Amino acid sequence: MNLQNNTCLTAEIDRIAEVAGYLWHRGWAERNGGNISVNVTALMSEEERSMPPLCAPVPLPEAMTMLGGQVFYVTGTGCRMRYVSQEPFSHGSLIRIAEDGNSYVIIAEKPVAPTSELPSHLLMHNYLLEKGRKNRVVLHTHPTDLIGLTHCQPFLDSDKLTRTLWSMIPECRIIVPRGIGIVPYEIPGSMALARATVRQLAEHDVVFWEKHGILATGEDLIECFDAIDTLSKSAQIYFSARMAGYEPEGMTAGQLDDLVPAFGLEKFQ
Ligand code: 2HA
Ligand code: ZN
C-alpha cells in the first residue's frame, strides 16, 4: 500500500520531520536524545490501518486497554533527530497496537524498532485517552537550559519552577497554562518513570524529568514544541539576568493573574 497518497498522513509526517529538525538545531537532541510519538489513527483509512505487519507481535509490559487497534508514528530506538528530520520513515515507523492492548506490530514503512521510551509514551497516550483528553502527541527532548534548572533543588518544586518561568514573560503564562509537573530522577525508559509522569499529567501538559529532560503532550506537535520553546526562552531570560549579576524581578502575581481573564485561561494554583 502506498501511504504517499494519503495527504493528511503525509502532512503529519512532514510536521514530525519539521519538529525533529528544530530539536536538533536548538541543541536539544544530542546523539539519539529525545523521542516523538503521534497518534495517527484518525488520519488513516480502515484499510491502511489494517496493513499486514512487518514483524512478529512485540509484547508490552502492561495492557494498554484504551489503545487497541490504534496506530502511532514513533521515532526509532537509537535514532538521531537530525536524521528523523531528513527521512522520518527510515528513522521511525508506524506501529499498530493489538486489539487487547497487550502487544504491537510495526506496519510501515520499514521494520524500524520504536524508541526505548515506547512503553512510557503508550502509558501516557492510554491515560490521556482514558481521561477524554484530545492529546495525540507525546514529545520528549533534552533542552540544555531547562535540564539545568532541574539540577537546582529549589526548582524541583512545581509551584516555584512554574511561577519563576511564567513570570519572565507574559507568553509563558499563556502558552503553558497548566504549569509544569516535576518527576524526581528515574531510570530512562523505565515504567517507574512512565508511571510517575502519568501522575503529573493529571494536572499538567509539560513535565520536567529531573536531570534528564522535558516531556510535553498536546493535540499538535508544533504546539508541544512551542510550549517547550517558550519555557526555554523564560529560562534563558532568568539565566541571563543571573549571569549579569542580578535576580530578575519577574512579573508580579497580580500581573500573572490578570492574564487569566484577558486570555480566557484556565485558573491554575
Ligand atoms: O531516546 O532520550 O530518554 C533517548 C532518550 C531516552
Ligand atoms: Zn531522554
Produce a short descriptive summary:
The chain is α+β, with helices and mostly antiparallel strands and 269 residues long. It has helices at 7-25, 46-49, 81-84, 118-130, 144-149, 158-166, 170-175, 191-201, 221-243, 253-262, and strands spanning 35-39, 58-59, 71-75, 92-97, 103-108, 137-141, 180-183, 206-209, 213-218. The chain has 2 domains: 1-116, L-fuculose-1-phosphate Aldolase, CATH 3.40.225; 143-269, 3-Layer(aba) Sandwich (L-fuculose-1-phosphate Aldolase).
Write the topology of this structure:
Layout: H1 7-25, E1 35-39, H2 46-49, E2 58-59, E3 71-75, H3 81-84, E4 92-97, E5 103-108, H4 118-130, E6 137-141, H5 144-149, H6 158-166, H7 170-175, E7 180-183, H8 191-201, E8 206-209, E9 213-218, H9 221-243, H10 253-262
Parallel strand pairs: 7-8
Antiparallel strand pairs: 1-3, 1-6, 2-5, 3-4, 4-5, 6-9, 8-9
Helix pairs in contact: 4-8
Zinc ion is lined by residues 33-34, 140, 142, 188, 212-213.
